[in-house]
Amino acid sequence: MDLEEAKEFKERCTQCTAVSWGLTDEGKYFCTSCHNVTERSKEVINTEAIPNSQIKAINRGLKRKKQLEKGWDWYVCEGFQYILYHQAEALKSLGVGPELKNEVLHKFWKRYLQKSKQAYCKNPIYTTGSLLSVKFPNDTSFDMHHDLLKKGILRNDFETLCTKLKSFEEASQEMTSVCSGSIDGVEYSQRKEKGIVKMTVPKTLALCYLSLLWQRETMTLSDLLRFVEEDHIPYINAFQHFPEEMKLYGRDKRIFAVESWPDYEDIHDKTIEIAKFLDLPRFPDITEDCYLHPNILCMKYLMEVNLPADEMHSLACQVVKMTGVGEVDFLTFDPIAKRAKTVKYDLQAVAIIVVVLKLLFLLDDNFEWSLSNLAEKYNKKNKKDKPWFDFRKWYQVMKKTLDEKKYKLEEARAKFMWKSEKPLYYSFIDKPVVYKRREMVVNLQKQFSTLVDLTPTVEKKHPSSFQFNWIEEDNDRTCFHGHSLQVVLKEKGQSLLTKNSSYWLSTQKFCKGNVCYCKHLTTYEESNFSLSYQFILNLFSFLLRIKTSLLHEEVSLIEKKLFERKYRRTKKKSGRSRKSR
Amino acid sequence: MDNFSEELARPVTKDGQVKMSILSGTGMHFPWLQSYVETVVIGGKKKKDFSQTTSACLSFIQEALLKHQWRRAAEYMHSYFQALETTDGHQRQTVPELIWKLGSEILFYHPKSNVETFTTFADRMKNIGVMNYLKISLQHALYLLHHGMLEDADRNLREAETWRYGEKSSSQEILINLVQAYKGLLQYYTWSKKKKELSKLDKDDYVYGTTTRSMINRSWKTSMNLSALIKIPGVWDPFVKSYVEMLEFYGDQDAAQEVLTNYAYDEKFPSNPNAHIYLYNFLKRKKAPRTKLLSVLKILYQIVPSHKLMLEFHTLLRKSEKEEHHKLGLEVLFGVLDFAGCTKNITAWKYLAKYLKQTLMGNHLVWVQEQWNSRKNWWPSFHFSYFWAKSDWKEDMALACEKAFVAGILLGKGCRYFRYISKQDHQVIRKKIKQMKKSVKRYSIVNPRL
């Protein structure tokens, strides 16, 4: 036995100070708890054994393998803790303030463990928090562990801890070997307690978003999800970042393996669910100087989609004011409030821009083109002046760019590598098959990579909150930021009015009650709407990577607020209504 | 290798659930309906992004292959391999075959690919699952054959032949037979090379004896390999041909005839004109009686009435004593000329001209009318238009004369083709035209001779 052979070596490990040694194949000592290999090696006393050394080595090798298979004892929530830790690190490297990781996310996670009765409470369902801290003595890099160590032991009743520890050690030996690598994988997937929100991989993102929101960081939900898809934030195969000794298989696969990208609405709903579960207080106010305030986000998206930003921005701000969506109470997330909801900040800002576009250009496949004719004529005549915004030209530029980007995204998605280097399997019967497949895939890929040009085609994109770039001026990609909206305005007395005096509503009816979010009346049937409206919805939903119908709903909601009186009056009327300003 | 492109069309349908494929009664396919039904079946649940992107990847590969962008296809293929790791049981079955088909297609055309790359790929793919081993081995061998590597192909087939996998191998019996047959075909190839050498040698030569001995040995093995396959219903032309050639060479005429008869007449076999052609040629070589030859050709006439052997059939019929054969002879000629590919066949026209005259002289006007009735609507513009008259005359005067005669007989001397040709004044055929005019006057079926 390895361990017995190594018993005579009694020094403390330099890394983790434990005294638990094993022998490597080369006869060197290694620490069984942190796998630190020493320089010292066991002296070979018996020279007789040399001819048989090969047999011995094989023997030992087999045993060691079996022993390693078990790996550390670990709990499912530890796995999530690792994922959260790495996600927080990734956010930090994306430029988010360090407080997010050390204070906010950490606190949320602790609160989660407490609320879900996994740690930091009088009667934890199991002693996860404390146990795991005992088992990670050397992991100095993860400060959260240390914290857990201190607080977990301090807050837990010491006696119960000891008894639980024992019982777990016994239980774990059979449990780990049967259905999951983690100790409580099976138990975890069977738990169905009412009122407890079970952690899942998508919910780690919801937690991240909650902390971003708390910190009022300059990152929207759509940005976060895009970074996930672009692999700047660990999510798919996040378990790859677990230490080598944390073995995953069986039920763990169902808990940690993800085969889909996060969905905007889904994560949004989960965020609210978790915030409620954690019983969080009202979040810091979102005021006009916050990034998430519609005034600022509108500016960002106006720049992004290459519209005359300055002039349209003032109009957007006006809409924000009229609809009241810029007010602090409306914007600030308050989980304790009766109807807890977070505003979909990015979506709302984009919807406001759509409404502004509708106000200016009507988007009925007719008016916007006639305005374009005017602008084109003017621009031809006055080449030196500030050019008038030409909707047609803008459409042509944007359409081309959008199509290119869409195709590139499609290509990138088709080439996305889903499978991790260490494959997950359900059982030991599965294992050789799964590993063989993995090896096969790697070999085939190696072979085909020689047929592809050596230059890596999918270079990792530099993370940016902008997807379109309009700074460089070239012929096909005109920048419209500085163009004038003169074409849509006319003077009347001293004030400027828009030439367009009509408006059509995206939805006629809503359900009764003010805050009804049922969707059956706002269903987006593409063919019912004008082509330019469709294009604009497509453009923005591509930008946020959401469904077009979602944006259409949001537009309807903004319109509802903007034309509230009109809605009240037309309740009984039907047919396409036109509102005059 | 040639049928790779045909096979490529199949993966598209195989991609989705084959069993659930929506086919309407008319055989029309609605791909959009398919995906719609699928979402309904799984309760409107969204497909995992993993399977969505891999199937998108698949269509990118197919698009690249269609456009012959091999490098791009290889690029996507690189990503598509991960589909092998799918957890979906059905996909697990279909993906290896798909990858083999697409991958081998790419490697066949990719400029950076070579025999070694292809072989490594094939060897890897053979061992993913068990169901594809034989198929891939066979196609691999065909690839090697295509590159002239006969020995390697032979070794490959030999390996495949001995492959066994419990019950799985018995269900793939036909594939094993095919593997053996291809091996036989390779042996035939060497045999036939030897035969050629032998024909150059002197019979008294010492070498002659040893060579024949080794040939006999080889052909015996080959016949074992080939005979198993050709008993199974199917189209096995090259195998049958080489097998018969060897049997004939060693004087086993009866066995050869039996094989060919079986191949042509067994009802379980799909209808195959070549089978009848082989049998006819064999019988002709063996100087079989006319009735036997006629019966073979009669079947061929029903399958391919435009075959060039039909003219031979006509001659045989003409020589026969039976009157019904004479009638059929006329029918066969008309039948040949119904096809666009035969319109300039001068022999056919010559035969028709001659035979029309003969038939009418024999007072069988009814026969001619019977044939003509169904054709009088379209033959004039198909064969006897003014345009054809001009171009035929320019290209081939002899042909034009024959056609003009037939036109005159069938349509009367007023017909444009006949008029155009008969007006031509040319020294060489002046006499012929004169004669033609005379005959037409006498025999034309439109002549009011009441």
From TrEMBL, chain A:
Residues 8-39 form the RRN7-type domain. GO terms for molecular function: RNA polymerase I core promoter sequence-specific DNA binding; zinc ion binding. GO terms for biological process: nucleolar large rRNA transcription by RNA polymerase I. It is found in: Nucleus, Nucleolus. Residues 80-243 form the Rrn7/TAF1B N-terminal cyclin domain. The keyword RNA-binding does not apply. Keywords: DNA-binding, Metal-binding, Nucleus, Transcription, Transcription regulation, Zinc, Zinc-finger. GO terms for cellular component: nucleoplasm; RNA polymerase I core factor complex; RNA polymerase transcription factor SL1 complex. Residues 260-451 form the Rrn7/TAF1B C-terminal cyclin domain. InterPro entries: Rrn7_cyclin_C, Rrn7_cyclin_N, TAF1B/Rrn7, TF_Rrn7_Zf. Component of RNA polymerase I core factor complex that acts as a GTF2B/TFIIB-like factor and plays a key role in multiple steps during transcription initiation such as pre-initiation complex (PIC) assembly and postpolymerase recruitment events in polymerase I (Pol I) transcription. Binds rDNA promoters and plays a role in Pol I recruitment as a component of the SL1/TIF-IB complex and, possibly, directly through its interaction with RRN3. Belongs to the RRN7/TAF1B family. This is TATA box-binding protein-associated factor RNA polymerase I subunit B.
Automatic annotation (TrEMBL), chain B:
Coiled coil: none annotated. InterPro entries: SL1/TIF-IB_Component, TAF1A. It comes from the Eukaryota. One of its GO terms (biological process) is transcription by RNA polymerase I. Pfam families: TAF1_subA. One of its GO terms (cellular component) is microtubule cytoskeleton. This is TATA-box binding protein associated factor, RNA polymerase I subunit A. The lineage of its organism: Eukaryota, Metazoa, Chordata, Craniata, Vertebrata.
